[in-house]
């Protein structure tokens, strides 16, 4: 869904918000899907902000 540079920019923004982001390796999908696992750690406020930012980007990319 996110490609190359887009992913890098998103991760930098999320990390700047005080969260740590871990994305599963390529080919390591959530069972039964083609989706990679994303783990977000940080304060509850930072996690909520990161989730909102990610979902906003996912929605925008699906609308294209």
From TrEMBL:
Q: Please verify whether the record's keywords include Chloroplast.
A: no
Instruction: Please name the GO terms that the record assigns under molecular function.
Output: RNA binding
- Matching InterPro entries, A to Z? KH_dom_type_1, KH_dom_type_1_sf
Q: Which UniProt keywords apply?
A: RNA-binding
K Homology domain segment(s): 13-56
Pfam families (UniProt xref): KH_1 (PF00013)
Spell out the protein name for this chain: K Homology domain-containing protein
- Recorded source organism is Aegilops tauschii subsp. strangulata
The root-end lineage is:
Eukaryota, Viridiplantae, Streptophyta, Embryophyta, Tracheophyta
